[in-house]
Design goal:
Elements: H1 36-43, E1 51-64, E2 88-99, E3 102-112, H2 117-120, E4 127-138, E5 141-154, E6 168-180, E7 184-193, E8 201-206, E9 215-221, E10 224-234, E11 242-255, E12 258-261, E13 268-271, E14 274-287, E15 290-301, E16 324-336, E17 339-351, E18 359-376, E19 380-396, E20 404-418, E21 430-440, H3 442-445, E22 459-471
Antiparallel strand pairs: 1-2, 1-22, 2-3, 3-4, 4-5, 5-6, 6-7, 7-10, 8-9, 10-11, 11-14, 12-13, 14-15, 15-16, 16-17, 17-18, 18-19, 19-20, 20-21, 21-22
């Protein structure tokens, strides 16, 4: 995917969708997983350094719409092209130590959102703990690694479209990775999360048994238990820089029953236990920095919503059993001399748990993006990008009353850049000048609220500057 010395990983899950998309996961991103060639180079390192180390992923930019307003994302699908992402950063602190043959690493990753003081004038901000775990290797042999804590647990990504199409979990728990010979890697993890949402968590005020004043009690407390397993086979061995890679993947989601209070008057309903599952597969060819990955994934029940979303509507039995999510995705990179080409694409069908035929919670969507790059010397280049995205809801267009609610966006962009990292599609840091023109269909404009200025124009301009970097970040 890139030169091993220059790309630990990069990327992001997107920010700010124009219209809510059922089952989407609007989390900020962190960097993509490296290719097998990069992983191989790291696994053959003879020694592990000890002590503290530091890593980071970040991007910052600002843009105009050439009409006097700030430039905004024009994405209308869940996983749109990443060119117009909001500022985001992660800082990672590691501590490595050795005890004989045993090695361990403590990882802490803090993430910050786009609330920049120099733009808002407010001395505040929001941060999140994205990783807080300890991993050890060597206690059960050099081929076995164990970890416990809170972490982003993910595989390969589609960089141009900002998402991990097969495995992407956020959990507090533990897991293991085992190298079964030179060709097979086995991974498994179990954990849980509990979203601050009344579908999983609800507190109420109760009268105390003794004393005065109300007390807070957990009426509903049902964390989602996540279990996942993955097996990967490398045709030429996991340390080879070229070959074929095949992965199979699965998840199981489970949630206990509970009682939820609907009104302040005390009306309550029983929520039965719920569950779901995910099955996926990946096939990849790689040779040095060039690669192509194809992903297929099917999810049902709770698994269709992902780990950081809950059902908006339920079946009559008050479960998510009818929900479905199917994804087919592609990611690729080709490099030769001063030329490179990156591609990304996905198709997605989603249906929520409601048995109703017509709904904005049932949809078909997809996107495709291509980014050719030309280098002038080793430190200056120009990237062009063309992308197309389309979404169709299983609902009648409320404005026309004729046909399905649907829209599409064609985006053309040019990105000249300077980098001290040298040639390579994934080398960073970058200093970028970005211009894009988004051509919206009439249907895409109707996806915005009637009085939202973002939907007024058929052509939306975006002109700005940006920077992106990553180094020493963690990954599986």
């Amino acid at each position: 995917m890139n030169r091993p010395s220059l790309l630990p990983f990069a990327c992001a899950l997107g920010a700010g969708l124009v219209a809510p998309v059922a089952g989407a996961q609007p989390l900020p991103p962190s960097a993509p997983s490296p290719s097998p060639a990069v992983t191989a180079a790291r696994e053959t390192t003879a020694t592990t350094p000890t002590g503290f180390s530091f890593g980071s992923y970040g991007r910052v930019g600002v843009a105009s719409d050439l009409r006097g307003r700030t430039g905004q994302s024009t994405n209308i699908v869940a996983f749109g092209p990443r060119l117009q992402l909001a500022p985001y950063a992660e800082v990672q602190f590691n501590y490595d130590a050795r005890f004989g043959r045993a090695r361990w690493r403590a990882v802490t990753t803090i993430a910050f959102n786009e609330s920049l003081f120099h733009f808002t004038g407010r001395f505040d901000g929001t941060f999140a703990v994205r990783n807080l775990y300890l991993e050890e290797t060597g206690v059960g042999g050099d081929d076995l690694s164990l970890w416990v804590g809170s972490r982003m647990y993910r595989g390969d990504d589609v960089y141009l479209l900002n998402f991990w199409p097969m495995d992407n979990l956020n959990m507090v728990g533990g897991g293991a990775r085992y190298h079964a010979g030179g060709h097979v890697v086995l991974q498994a993890a179990v954990g849980m999360n509990r979203l601050d949402d009344p579908y999983q968590l609800q507190t109420i005020s109760v009268a105390p048994r003794d004393g005065f004043g109300p007390q807070t009690a957990f009426l509903l407390d049902r964390p989602r238990v996540l279990t996942t397993a993955k097996a990967t086979w490398f045709s030429a061995g996991r340390t080879a820089r070229e070959g074929l890679k095949l992965s199979v993947y699965g998840e199981y989601h489970a949630m206990a029953s509970g009682v939820r209070q609907l009104t302040d008057a005390g009306a309550r309903i029983e929520l039965p236990g719920d569950s779901g599952w995910v099955l996926g597969a990946q096939a990849g060819l790689y040779r040095g920095p060039s690669f192509v990955n194809v992903f297929v994934r099917y999810a049902q029940g709770l698994g269709a919503y992902g780990d950081l979303d809950v059902p908006v509507t339920l079946a009559s039995a008050r479960t998510s059993a009818r929900a479905q999510d199917f994804r087919l995705a592609l990611s690729g990179n080709w490099e030769r001399g001063p030329f490179a080409l990156m591609v990304g694409a996905y198709f997605r069908y989603f249906r929520d748990a409601d048995a109703g035929v017509f709904s904005r919670d049932a949809l078909v969507e997809g996107a495709v993006s291509a980014r050719p790059i030309v280098w002038f010397g080793d430190y200056v280049g120009v990237a062009a990008e063309v992308s197309y995205q389309q979404i169709t809801y299983n609902a009648i267009d409320p404005v026309t009353g004729n046909g399905a609610l649907a829209g599409s966006v064609l985006r053309l962009a040019a990105v000249p850049f300077v980098t001290p990292g040298g040639r390579g599609s994934y080398t960073r840091p970058h200093l970028q000048l970005i211009y894009s023109a988004s051509l919206r269909s009439d249907g895409a404009r109707r996806l915005y609220a009637p009085d939202d200025p973002l939907g007024f124009n058929r052509v939306e301009h975006y002109l700005g500057v940006g920077t992106e970097w990553w180094f020493n970040s963690s990954y599986l």
